[in-house]
Amino acid sequence: MCAFCSKEETEPHSFNGDTCKVCQFTISPATIKNFTGAKINHTDKTVKITVDKNTSYLMLTNMVTVSSNSTWKIFDSTVKEVPKTISLNNGENIYFITFTDSTDENITNTYTFTVYKSFKVKLNYYGVSGGIIKTQTVDTGYDCTLSFVPDIAGYVFNFWKYSGV
Q: Alpha-carbon distance 140 to 159, whole Å?
């Protein structure tokens, strides 16, 4: 689905200025056009990306494309402007990106930018007696394939239960 026109994408959208060559949608001033590797939701004004556990920072300058005559700045959760290369902690890293039309500073848009940095966690499989019967290490932020289905005499496996982190 196109983030701009809400039509089903048959090919990747590309822009001639601020007009999409595919759907002919023209984006408004002070708007994000593209963010490499991220999912943009223009309705909720959010940008989300998941990065590998080995990623310690993101250089945003070459990842962000904005509408013509627009500039952008990034702010941390205390609304302090930060450099466009950001250091990452494990889990959620939340920033705010403000886009400003350089011809009219009254036209701005602010998006919440969430970077989820994966990290390893240990899954414990508990038996009916409450003891750990198997352990598996997985990366957070991604789907995982569970390596174990309990096979205990006299019991039928029905579901997995999440008990929190």
A: 20
